[in-house]
């Protein structure tokens, strides 16, 4: 066995988990890198997350920024300190993780036994499993006062620390200037939490006392309010409610005067990260009394009936409001700031072994030109992903932000871009006429609030509301990213709406020679290369991609990725290919994707492993063959990666000529096209793409034919339009 790699700190957990666990790990990674502590990140698979998920985006970004090293299964590692987060993950540790440590810490990030008397982890079992694995017994740290009593009651079974391991937050990224509530203005109160009955008071009187519907305050909710309707009978019409993930939480809490959080009486909150975020922003927090042990003087405490009095009093006393706001921010900075974490580590293991590193800022620099990227709600994620590819290549003088009809818009956050979601007609379940009245109001409101220099729209048809709104904002440049390869005979009546745009960009098409659609030869657009989210250099090699996905390093692997299935049902095609894959000789392992936008689809065949990662292209080289949809994005990505592929056109699309695209790829020897999926055609296609000789030749031809990524070129055209020259 090779000698162990040494690190100051090893952070370990199930790296796929969303929410507070991985958010806190990402903050610690940034703080450790800034202080000079050499850090390794270890994935320990558990039943808490879907086995097909990839590394959580915030952690993925830390790895991409070089703030930590990812430990590949089987690689010997020794750490001065191992920090294990989420006790439920460590009741059993896989045998292929050869890790040792001088010291170990087990972070209990939620209560051992909840209010319903459900036990979430057995401390004795977990303690022994970790001791056997690392060769050292862990010291247990609760993440806050609410977790400690459950550990105190079993302290004879564990080594319990005398202090709590408080989570981190970068106050400077959340803080906004506060001026108090202006005289005569209506105070704004709000809350941010997941939509769950446990997160709201169970009595209608308490709920409406804390969040009035009488117009005395403006109530804003981020996270949905279905539970409110269950308690009160309706969601008050005066409230502004956005679904969980509908916008960047930093922007949301920045618009609140008061953060008011009351929940069901039997809920035991381990900490309350959203409260900490609100305090960091400068909002005044109003909470139930039991939070006093956590936040002390940083918040104000009352019953639901007492909320109105506090809001009224502080709204009329600017000095008192600003004083309380400052106390909250100072509390977060002192107890949860990155500096406190560096001091905590120094006390445990001494100074770092490396020099401090420059950690990329997540703050939005002032003085940049804002460009708003607007995507339609397509059948897949093509519109959103093309815009994201452009935004990621913007000049440093540009501040990208997103306004999208796609429910998957939240994926842009992992790249540091703010965003807002606008429900499509289908998602609202309204008529075309109703939506055409709603959209221009929402679009104009966003344009007034963000005041971008340019709007870049990616979609087949500019909306009626976009056309009517454009005239109200003559100083904003409008750009249309209009994909080519339209089906022959597609109506062109909507092309006249292109007159509102100052520039029309046409993303390149590798199969352009087969394009017979109505856009060919129009001469009204600027052509760029094919636009993909990633460049070839961004793709992981086979070994690294497999390690990150937890795949067998040697077994031949087939990827099935037939799109979101939101136009037609792809389940039967998927099953036919899955059945054909099961008959392949050589022990092939089959994986199938579930895109973030997918709304339909039943269970997979038992031998198929689900996979949910974004962007999928990063991991394509983990697979020896693939079956993909012939949509713009997936088609160009598999060619760029050189993965031997079967391409399956969706012949039910309105404009995208996937049939011509797939047939051209087949004729060029880049891929195998299957226009009609049957048991026989699926089996024949898989036999062909898994033949080593054919696969090698097809991969070489695809790589040779693929041009450079056109995303950067497209973005430069936008920048020149608004006077930003590189």
TrEMBL record:
<dbReference type="Pfam" id="PF04101">
    <property type="entry name" value="Glyco_tran_28_C"/>
</dbReference>
<dbReference type="InterPro" id="IPR007235">
    <property type="entry name" value="Glyco_trans_28_C"/>
</dbReference>
<protein>
    <submittedName>
        <fullName>Antifreeze protein, type I</fullName>
    </submittedName>
</protein>
<dbReference type="GO" id="GO:0016758">
    <property type="term" value="F:hexosyltransferase activity"/>
</dbReference>
<feature type="domain" description="Glycosyl transferase family 28 C-terminal">
    <location>
        <begin position="616"/>
        <end position="697"/>
    </location>
</feature>
């Amino acid at each position: 066995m090779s000698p162990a790699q040494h690190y100051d700190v090893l952070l370990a957990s199930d790296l796929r988990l969303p929410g507070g666990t991985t958010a806190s790990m990402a903050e610690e990674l940034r703080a450790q890198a800034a202080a000079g502590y050499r850090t390794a990140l270890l994935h320990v698979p558990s039943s808490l997350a879907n086995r097909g998920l990839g590394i959580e985006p915030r952690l993925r970004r830390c790895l991409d920024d070089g703030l930590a090293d990812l430990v590949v299964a089987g690689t010997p590692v020794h750490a001065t300190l191992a920090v294990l987060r989420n006790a439920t993950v460590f009741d059993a540790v896989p045998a292929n993780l050869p890790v040792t440590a001088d010291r170990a810490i087990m972070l209990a990030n939620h209560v051992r036994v909840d209010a319903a008397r459900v036990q979430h982890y057995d401390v004795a079992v977990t303690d022994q499993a970790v001791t056997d694995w690392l060769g050292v017994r862990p010291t247990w740290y609760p993440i806050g006062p609410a977790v400690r009593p459950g550990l105190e009651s079993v302290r004879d079974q564990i080594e319990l620390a005398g202090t709590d391991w408080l989570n981190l937050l970068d106050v400077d990224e959340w803080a906004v200037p506060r001026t108090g509530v202006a005289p005569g203005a209506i105070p704004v109160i709000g809350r941010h939490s997941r939509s769950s009955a446990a997160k709201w008071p169970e009595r209608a009187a308490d709920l409406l006392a804390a969040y009035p519907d009488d117009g005395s305050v403006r109530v804003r909710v981020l996270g949905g309010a279905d539970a409110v309707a269950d308690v009160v009978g309706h969601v008050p019409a005066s409230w502004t409610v956005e679904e969980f993930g509908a916008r960047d939480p930093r922007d949301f809490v920045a618009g609140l005067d008061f953060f008011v959080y009351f929940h069901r009486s039997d809920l035991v909150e381990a900490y309350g990260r959203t409260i900490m975020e609100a305090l960091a922003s400068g909002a005044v927090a109003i909470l139930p009394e039991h939070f006093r042990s956590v936040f002390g003087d940083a918040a104000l405490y009352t019953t639901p009936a007492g909320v109105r009095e506090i809001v009224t009093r502080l709204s009329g006393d600017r000095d008192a409001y600003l004083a309380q706001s400052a106390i909250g921010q100072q509390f977060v900075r002192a107890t949860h700031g990155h500096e406190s974490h560096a001091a905590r580590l120094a006390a445990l293991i001494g100074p770092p072994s490396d020099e401090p590193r420059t950690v990329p800022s997540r703050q939005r620099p002032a003085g940049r030109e804002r460009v708003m990227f607007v995507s339609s709600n397509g059948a897949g994620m093509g519109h959103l992903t093309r815009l994201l590819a452009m935004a990621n290549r913007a000049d440093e003088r540009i501040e990208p932000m997103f306004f999208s009809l796609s429910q998957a818009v939240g994926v842009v956050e992992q790249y540091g871009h703010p965003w807002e979601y606008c429900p499509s007609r289908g998602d609202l379940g309204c008529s075309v006429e109703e939506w055409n009245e709603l959209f221009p109001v929402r679009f104009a409101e966003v344009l007034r609030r963000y005041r971008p220099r340019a709007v870049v729209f990616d979609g087949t048809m500019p909306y009626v509301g976009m056309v009517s709104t454009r005239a109200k904002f003559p100083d904003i440049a409008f750009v249309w990213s209009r994909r080519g390869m339209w089906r022959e005979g597609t109506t062109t009546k909507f092309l006249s709406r292109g007159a509102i745009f100052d520039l029309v960009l046409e993303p390149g098409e590798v199969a352009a020679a087969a394009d017979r659609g109505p856009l060919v030869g129009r001469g009204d657009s600027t052509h760029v290369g094919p636009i993909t989210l990633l460049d070839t250099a961004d793709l992981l090699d086979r070994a690294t991609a497999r390690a990150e996905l937890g795949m067998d390093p040697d077994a031949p692997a087939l990827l099935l990725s037939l799109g979101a299935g939101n136009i037609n049902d792809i389940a039967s095609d998927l099953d036919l290919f899955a059945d054909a894959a099961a008959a392949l000789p050589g022990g092939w392992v089959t994986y199938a994707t579930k895109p973030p936008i997918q709304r339909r689809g039943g269970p997979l065949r038992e031998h198929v492993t689900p996979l949910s990662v974004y962007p999928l292209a990063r991991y394509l080289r983990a697979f020896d063959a693939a079956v993909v949809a012939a949509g713009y994005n997936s088609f160009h990505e598999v060619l760029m990666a050189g993965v031997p592929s079967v391409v399956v056109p969706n012949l039910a699309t309105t404009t995208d000529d996937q049939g011509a695209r797939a047939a051209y790829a087949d004729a060029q020897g880049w891929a195998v096209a299957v226009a009609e999926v049957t048991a026989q055609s699926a089996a024949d296609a898989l036999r062909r793409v898994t033949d080593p000789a054919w696969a090698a030749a097809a991969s070489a031809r695809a790589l040779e034919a693929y041009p450079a990524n056109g995303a950067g070129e497209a973005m430069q055209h936008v920048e020149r339009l608004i006077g930003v020259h590189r």
